[in-house]
Amino acid sequence: MKKYFFIINSKAGIHKRGKGITEKILEILSGKLVNYEWAVTEKPGHAPELAKKAVSEGFDFVVAVGGDGTVNEVAKGLAGSDVTLGIIPTGSGNGLARHLKISQNLVKAIDTILNNKTSYIDLWKLNDQLFLSVAGNGFDAEIAHKMSLSQKRGRWKYIKLVIKRSLSFNPIDIELVANQSIIKQRVLMITFANSSQFGNNAYISPKAKTDDGLIDVVIIEPVCKILYPVVGLAILLKKIHWFKFHKLYRVKNAVLNNSSSELFHIDGDPVKINAPVKIEPFNKPLQVCIP
Question: φ, ψ for residue 71 (rounded to 5)?
Answer without folding.
Answer: -60, -45
